[in-house]
Write a structure and sequence with these properties.
alpha+beta; Arc Repressor Mutant, subunit A; 2 domains; four-stranded antiparallel beta sheet; three-stranded antiparallel beta sheet; about 45% helix; globular; DNA binding
């Protein structure tokens, strides 16, 4: 589907076509009618499902919370915080809300005094666990070489981080 057509000052014509619901390919045409493939974009200004979902899941806290709930099944807020250790109360609250909004965890509030709130994975959350475990296994397998590369890189840059 044709998205935009823009005439450039240098005699080039730029057209962007939608290939999927979230990928654009820009073709630059010179006056000689040669076409050059410029790049694929993932909608930095629009709604990109990949970018949106990964932004929630890629935080270390979200991953740790999902792994913790998988290991312990149902947990209270304070138990999650104790098991993770260095997460602040505010960050835990924000991350739990985000995971709940995405339907990865559920929250159950008990009408007791004092109130009791429990969190657990939903079916969608459980369906994500094998993928997280795959990433964790990959990290464990590759960690020695990655650490060696980091050490080598630090030595060749005189101790200055190149990131």
């Amino acid at each position: 589907m044709f998205c935009k057509n823009k005439q450039c000052l240098l005699g080039k014509q730029e057209r962007t076509y939608k290939l999927d619901s979230y990928i654009d390919v820009t073709i630059i045409e010179k006056q000689t009618n040669r076409k050059y493939k410029k790049m694929q974009n993932f909608h930095p200004t629009g709604v990109c499902p990949i970018r949106d979902i990964l932004s929630h899941l890629s935080s270390k806290w979200a991953t740790l919370i999902l792994i913790t709930l998988n290991a312990n099944k149902t947990m209270r807020f304070s138990d999650i915080q104790k098991s993770i250790g260095d997460i602040s109360q505010r960050m835990l609250t924000v991350t739990l809300r985000s995971l709940e909004t995405d339907g990865l965890i559920s929250r159950k509030i008990y009408a007791e005094i004092p109130p009791r709130v429990e969190y657990k994975l939903t079916e969608r959350g459980y369906s994500l666990i094998p993928h997280i475990e795959g990433l964790v296994n990959w990290a464990i397998e590759n960690m020695p070489m990655i650490m060696k590369n980091r050490k080598t890189n630090k030595l060749t840059t005189n101790g200055q981080e190149s990131f």
